[in-house]
């Protein structure tokens, strides 16, 4: 029978204690070196050089690589000194979809490995998050694309029929906006006024997604989405006012915030009637 040794006892035991302590000290020093370096700024040139290195390594790691491209702020030349690096790596072998993400001395890197069949299926799907998620398929900078796959990917995203967007808008309204408006009403009814600012922010966020779908617009990022949405044409009445309030952080007067959420909801109903989006089922239980 092997006698079990607790960690403190093992750590104190003779010569192995010194080896163990040294190993942990080296690990801690390396972690601190990586952490301290990772939160430091790096230049665009360094980040693009790293992207080339990662792309070459990905092609060695997976010989079935069909294309590699950069997406996100780096692809749009909008990256700042603290931005991370995001790459899409398309594989020939079907049915694969996994991500490698790490924090190293050059900063944070994310590589999405995905099969061509899975990629094109995802790229041609439209749901409520489409205005935020699908920019990664359209605004992509090729690093390795011998057959023009990334060009075909962009074309596939932008050629989805309009009916798919109508379905996505209806689902977003029924599944998200209705629920949030109900929560605002409950908060008023129960006197839970401290909940209203949070709910208003969520309503503005989902309202921006709705506006993005209506305009088939792909936002640059979630942090820029509200400001971008105000410049788009098709908007439900009341949205701009609520969105501007959230952007300004003017959420302390909860009665006024709740009133504007109601105005926005009324605008959504009016907007749906105008655009032929049927929110209500004629039967009490539709199945």
Order of helices and strands: HHHEEEEHHHEHHHHHH
Mean pLDDT: 89
CATH homologous superfamily heading of the largest domain? Beta Polymerase, domain 2
Q: What is the CA–CA distance across the termini?
A: 64 Å
CATH topology of the largest domain: Beta Polymerase, domain 2
- In the sheet with the most strands, the strands line up as 3-4-2-1-5
- In DSSP terms (H or I, runs of 4 or more residues), the helix count works out at 12
What does this 3D model show about the protein?
Strand 3 and strand 4 form a beta hairpin. The protein has 2 domains: 44-158, Beta Polymerase, domain 2 (2-Layer Sandwich); 162-275, Nucleotidyltransferases  domain 2 (Four Helix Bundle (Hemerythrin (Met), subunit A), Up-down Bundle). The chain starts with 6 loop residues before the first helix and ends in a 12-residue tail after the last helix. Helices cover 57% and strands 12% of the residues. With 287 residues, the protein is of the alpha+beta class. Helix 8 (162-190) packs antiparallel against helix 9, helix 9 (196-215) packs across helix 11 (239-248) and helix 9 packs parallel to helix 12 (254-275). It is built from 12 helices and 5 strands. The model is unreliable at 1-15 (pLDDT under 50). The chain is globular, with a radius of gyration of 25 Å. The chain has helices at residues 7-12, 14-38, 44-61, 116-123, 130-133, 135-138, 149-158, 162-190, 196-215, 222-229, 239-248, 254-275; strands spanning 65-71, 85-91, 97-104, 107-115, 141-144.
